[in-house]
Amino acid sequence: MDPIDSVHSDDGQAEGGPSSGDQALPVGQSDLERAILAKLDEDKALDMVLIDLRGKSPMSDAMIVASGRSNRHVGALADHLLRMFKEMGLGKVKVEGLPHCDWVLLDAGDVIVHLFRPEVRTFYNIEKIWAIDSAHRGGAGVA
Q1: Is 26:50 a contact under the CB 8 Å cutoff?
Q2: What ranges does the record give for the region Disordered, renumbered to this chain (predicted)?
Q3: Number of domains present in the structure of the chain
Q4: What pLDDT is attached to residue 127?
Q5: Domain presence at residue 138
Q6: Is residue 143 part of a domain?
Q7: Fewer Cβ neighbours under 10 Å: the N or C end of the chain?
Q8: Is-contact 46 9, C-beta < 8 A?
């Protein structure tokens, strides 16, 4: 699995569909990652990305980034994930940004989920920060 795997394209259509070959959706390594990705896909989250942090950061094993179409959609995605976490017995998951729903962060311990409105996601560009070959991480192209 690549360190950053996109699940949906920018137009919200699943990559790997009939017209784009047989590329499968990325699958998380843990049950929690797989459950989150499945729930987000079921709830029509856009442009889901799974970033594997194992061996790169002690704060979490994985980060999932996804977009919602609007504040209401982002809020609904967050609410559905919170309900799923409770059903899984994770208890209180730390949540930030829920009142405004521009950017909602859910910290489930082993997995951190970032939910954005598309324009907010573009502004913060979290995927680039965590890219393996980013200059600040000592990747290729650094003198």
Answers
A1: yes
A2: 1-26
A3: 1
A4: 86
A5: no
A6: no
A7: C
A8: no
Average pLDDT over residues 60-80: 95
CATH of the domain at 114: 3.30.460.10
Q: Output the pLDDT for position 101.
A: 93
Matching residue, tokens 């609904």: 76
Contacts of 130 (CB under 8 A, 6+ apart): 3, 4, 51, 53, 56, 63
The torsion defined by the Cα of 139, 67, 80 and 105, in degrees rounded to 10, comes to: 50
Distance CA 122, CA 128 (A): 10
Q: How confident is the model at residue 120 (pLDDT cuts 50, 70, 90)?
A: very high
User: Per-residue pLDDT tens for 27-44?
Assistant: 678 899 999 999 999 999
Nearest to 115 by CA among 71, 83, 85: 71
Tokens of 51: 């970033």
Strand partners for 51: 4, 63
Band (11; pLDDT cuts 50, 70, 90)? very low
The parent domain of residue 88 ranges over: 31-126
Strands 94-96 and 4-6 turn out to be unpaired
